[in-house]
Write a structure and sequence with these properties.
By secondary structure, the protein is of the alpha+beta class. The chain folds into 2 domains: 216 residues, NADH Oxidase (3-Layer(aba) Sandwich), CATH 3.40.109; 137 residues, NADH Oxidase, CATH 3.40.109.10. It contains 11 helices and 14 strands. Strands 1-6-5-4-7-8 form a 6-stranded antiparallel sheet. The chain has a 6-stranded antiparallel sheet with strand order 11-10-9-12-14-13, covered by helices on one side. The chain has a two-stranded antiparallel sheet with strand order 2-3. Helix 4 crosses helix 5. Bound molecules: flavin mononucleotide. Flavin mononucleotide binds next to helix 5 and strand 13.
């Protein structure tokens, strides 16, 4: 059977949220059937703690558990990066070469144990050959993958959007972490995305979606991997959604470089960030809103700020930081965002539109939103990404498609 590959226009059409679709929802989620959220390599694989070797310590801030509770008798993990529905549809792999004290190899980042788990040693071979490099890359090559079923289990095909937004948040965290540790990202090239996925042991349920280097290209030539890596399922079970997987498989790797704002107290910001569940509008200063409106916006995006409550700023619509239409849009914004009541307390909502509805624009919306999260934490205000909205109602403020929103407001 041939699978129809949906282009991003078709994905948008098929994943629109409308009041009719929401009213039709009759099923309730059986949380017992939630697929596992963290990939586990076999116990016999060699492991290194991220805290044992100085050169690895930055990886302990890249994707890490920052809150652990018990909910319905199961551990409930939250990470340094937000995630739609907290479903965490991502994994990270790192190729390490010529880093003192670390065996050269391809590792999985085990977020629960804060370890690198060795999947395969490398010598004169490596993933460089699938990324347009002819020579060995000394340092780290970070590969981020998407595991769509973790999100589609709850959201169906709309998971396509959330997987890419989540990935953007993770790339934003990579940028900020690398910068904090005085390291630099190196851009990789497209060469053989399929070869990379096949040789990294990805199957039909996981896809490498973005890659960056941290280090330098050396003088010695590199060969293709001698053997493909072992295949380990990213979830305890999976259900096929051919349209979702083929659309993700056919999306080229995201390799773009993007600069993020630097915060002096990054480690505490990275570990303390949480999505706001309620807002206290009188506790947010107008100045904080002005600072947030100055956050740099990737070229693919258009951000419209709607000020809902303020001390002395005009309420209404701001484009590129400039006041453009006066008005109290609180009810319209709450309605747009599926009537999520806690947004009533927000001071401001940032609506993130893109010229084109593409996977890469979603990633950039996530990168931008991660910057907003970090800046909010730095400014002592709360925020939450909002991926649930009625798509068509977003068009009252822009002709472009709405990809994502961030609600911002005072903390208690
Ligand atoms: C892409 C994306 C979409 C989200 N959509 C919503 C949303 O519609 N409503 C909401 O209350 N929270 C939303 N969130 C916030 C998540 O619920 C939150 O990140 C998750 O529960 C983990 O909590 P934490 O961010 O405090 O770690 C979203 C987050 C992301 C990254």
């Amino acid at each position: 059977m041939t699978v129809m590959y949906l282009d991003s226009f078709e994905v948008r059409e098929k994943t629109l949220l409308t009041p009719f679709k929401i009213a039709q929802r009759t099923t309730f989620l059986e949380w017992e059937s939630q697929p596992t959220l963290f990939k586990q390599y076999p116990h016999f694989c060699y492991r290194i703690s991220l805290h044992d070797i100085e050169a690895l310590s930055w990886l302990s801030q890249l994707r890490c558990i920052t809150s652990l509770r018990t909910v319905a008798q199961k551990p409930y993990y939250q990470l340094n990066v937000p995630s739609a529905g907290n479903l965490k549809p991502l994994e990270i792999y790192v190729q390490v070469r010529n880093v003192a004290g670390v065996l050269c190899g391809i590792y999985h980042l085990d977020v629960i144990t804060e370890q690198l788990v060795l999947i395969q040693e490398i010598e004169d071979d490596g993933v460089e050959s699938y990324l347009g490099l002819t020579n060995r890359f000394n340092g780290f090559i970070v590969m981020m993958s998407i595991v769509p079923f973790r999100s589609s289990w709850k959201y169906g095909l709309r998971a396509w959007r959330y997987c890419y937004l989540d990935l953007g948040h993770q790339i934003g965290a990579l940028n900020a972490t690398v910068r904090h540790f005085g390291l630099e990202l190196t851009k990789m090239s497209h060469y053989d995305d399929n070869g990379l996925n096949l040789n990294m042991g990805m199957g039909d349920d996981e896809f490498i979606a973005s890659v960056y280097g941290i280090g330098q290209v050396g003088n010695r030539p590199v060969k293709e991997l001698k053997n493909p890596l072992m295949k380990v399922a990213p979830t305890n079970y999976t259900m096929k959604d051919d349209q979702l997987s083929s659309s993700i498989r056919n999306t080229p790797l995201y390799l773009e470089m993007y600069d993020v704002r630097q915060c002096s107290n990054y480690i505490s910001i990275n570990r303390n960030r949480r999505s706001a569940r309620e807002f206290f509008a009188s506790n947010m200063k107008d100045r904080a809103m002005a600072i947030l409106m100055q956050t740099s916006v990737p070229k693919s995006l258009e951000v419209i700020a709607i000020i809902l409550q303020a001390h002395s700023m005009h309420l209404g619509v701001y484009c590129k930081g400039q006041f453009s239409i006066a008005g109290n849009y609180r009810n319209e914004v709450i309605q747009l965002l599926l009537g999520q009541r806690f947004i009533a307390g927000a001071n401001m909502v940032l609506l993130i539109y893109a010229q084109q509805f593409t996977a890469h624009a979603h990633i950039e919306a996530g990168i931008y939103a991660q910057d907003i999260y970090l800046t909010c934490e730095h400014l002592g205000v709360g925020c939450s990404g909002i991926g649930a909205f009625y798509d068509n109602e977003g068009s009252q403020w822009s002709n472009n498609p709405l990809l994502y929103a961030v609600a911002v407001g005072g903390k208690s």
